[in-house]
Amino acid sequence: MPRSAGTLLVLFALLVLWQGLHLLVGASSLASPVQTVTKLASLLATGEFWLNISETMRAFVAAFAISLFGGIALGIVLGVRKLAGNVAEPILTTLYSIPKVVLYPLVLLCFGLGISAKIAFGVMHGLIPITLFSMNAIRQMKPVYRRTSQVMRLSPAQNAFTVIMPAILPEIISGVRLGFSLTLLGVLIGEMFASQRGLGFLLTSAINLGQIDTIMAIALLLTVFAVTCNALMMRFDRRLTHR
């Protein structure tokens, strides 16, 4: 079966399951696919909704950029320096296991209300996974690459950009995919706790008002965005692996 046909079959099965659950639990608990798409279309037709999307995307892009470049850079440093990596790995794993919600008062104290707190909360979710994936990718890198760079007497910068990065890029993409989803989740959670604008704020407002169709519409929008971006990264990853 072609891949596109398989994808369409899965989507159709999900729609049937969604409609079946709607009929089972009722419209007061779960909006139907038609109601959800109709509500999303009406929301997208308003300028206020686009302002909230823009607010969320601003915070997400900033948080993901910090998580991406900071995580890769830190992962390379800890991966190259074996002792530092062995010391840092259990510390990072322990820190990441702490529920981020309990740290939110500290985030608010340091960054205050606004976009800075949402960015910080997103970075808290996305930075460590990308760091760990990058560090472990270097550890699993073939030793011949390092020996070759030593024989060629490459500088640390040349070694990082011409030897290490190309060798570990496929593994890093896996970490980036995970970090992407977790950073988006962190930003949305940040907006749900203390924000007056953004998709997370709209979700909280809809939950408080019992607006099931709005909740489902925003969830559908976020799902389509996340799945599309993840599919693009998977496609890029397959091309790297093929090469």
TrEMBL record:
Main localization, broad class: membrane
Every ABC transmembrane type-1 domain range: 53-233
InterPro entries in the cross-refs: MetI-like (IPR000515), MetI-like_sf (IPR035906)
UniProt keyword Transport, yes or no: yes
Subcellular location, record wording: Cell membrane
Topological relation to the membrane, as annotated: Multi-pass membrane protein
Domain of life per record: Bacteria
Keywords: Cell membrane, Membrane, Transmembrane, Transmembrane helix, Transport
Entry's transmembrane regions: 60-80, 92-114, 120-138, 159-189, 209-233
UniProt xrefs under PROSITE patterns: ABC_TM1 (PS50928)
Similarity section: Belongs to the binding-protein-dependent transport system permease family.
Record-given protein name: ABC transporter permease
